[in-house]
């Protein structure tokens, strides 16, 4: 009887945590559960996680299960102890109840309350989050593979240093960091390479760092002694164009008291333009609008195609509403 | 030997300075057991006294480490040597050069002077015999014109000591 009830409870845990729950034994229950703080599944907001083992004996639930941390990320010993002792306390509180789900929930609560990076940046040794500085605090990032956190400036400085070391087989230290100016080259190097975490040497993918490079330029000034990130690299030409177009749409929307014209039921072909484009005066010349579509698409220089595909990522993130119409126009060589 | 590599002669960058100031403050609050930083006004060269750990071959002995920081510390490893007389150890040459991977290929900018010191003391403590490396004479002769150990192509073959 008890065994069936316990088995039903294990099933409930499995249903709740599905892939994050590994059942070593159904009776007496022995489970490994991968628990994360509540971040609405936004992984960039997650700084801690833990795999917790719950191993019950045949006297469960009268005797609470044994609880331990099998693996964790982003938790120092102090926080690990805090996590484990609060789950154990909960287990004693709930003695002789079916408690497995409640214990998982307790652990998730604890993880959620501890879901912030702790301590110093391992590279500059200054606090990751400077409470005194408030919003002036330096931006930081974490490596997805191990959850070790660094100031963005610090890790990028190190990353560029590594790239430079790999790139120049000249004698070290004599060349300046600013030599990495060729954005194409830099981009290529990033894509091909992988790095190792300076703290634990766990391998991470280059793209982990790359996305930080894209973020960092907007709100930081690098120390004069450090490496300057090329402005063009952070905001390529195509992105500037995108912004201009977006602002044009916005302006039009404001002029129309917030209304955007309903989409018409017509097929948009290459070479067709929006009814009243704001940015491009040349589009007002009627005859051009009636250009045969075929020549237009044939003449499209390959360079513009390439830049288009490179920036598609940016575009899809913003202004979905403005839709494909704008993309068509952008790829037109006349602009 | 002391003023050898070009890297160590260049002044510290601002970032290196900040980081070293921080390490020094940290050291003063919480120095690694068995080590004493000799106070100087030179941030770029630290001289550190090492006391052999009790219960090991080096118990009761005192040695001196010289740590020179390059312009781009901590991206680049510091140069760490024993000021002769260096302890008799299978990985320590008589000119004070230390064969320890973290000082060269395996350096990571997340390491600190403090963590280096702990590694060196652990290396001393696990020594099975007080002896020089087999190639000591050849190596020391090669370094006679004051070469930095950072320019040596080290071959790390022994992971026991």
From TrEMBL, chain A:
Keyword Lipoprotein in record: no
GO molecular function: ligase activity; ubiquitin protein ligase activity; zinc ion binding
Residue ranges annotated for the RWD domain, each copy included: 8-114
InterPro entries: RNF25, RWD_dom, UBQ-conjugating_enzyme/RWD, Znf_RING, Znf_RING/FYVE/PHD
Single GO biological process annotation from the record: protein ubiquitination
Any Pfam family: RWD
Domain of life: Eukaryota
Biased composition (Basic and acidic residues): 324-335
Keyword Zinc annotated: yes
Residue intervals of the RING-type domain: 121-201
Residue ranges, annotated region (Disordered): 261-335
Residue stretches of biased makeup (Basic residues): 307-323
Cellular component terms (Gene Ontology): nucleus
Keywords: Ligase, Metal-binding, Zinc, Zinc-finger
The name this protein goes by in its record: E3 ubiquitin- ligase RNF25
Automatic annotation (TrEMBL), chain B:
Keywords: ATP-binding, Nucleotide-binding, Transferase, Ubl conjugation pathway
Lineage, uppermost ranks: Eukaryota, Viridiplantae, Streptophyta, Embryophyta, Tracheophyta
TM spans (from-to): none
EC number: 2.3.2.23
UBC core domain span: 15-161
Matches recorded under SMART domains: UBCc
Key word Nucleotide-binding present: yes
One GO MF term attached to the UniProt entry: ubiquitin conjugating enzyme activity
Annotated active site: 99
Protein name stated in the entry: E2 ubiquitin-conjugating enzyme
Functional note: Accepts the ubiquitin from the E1 complex and catalyzes its covalent attachment to other proteins.
Family the UniProt entry places it in: Belongs to the ubiquitin-conjugating enzyme family.
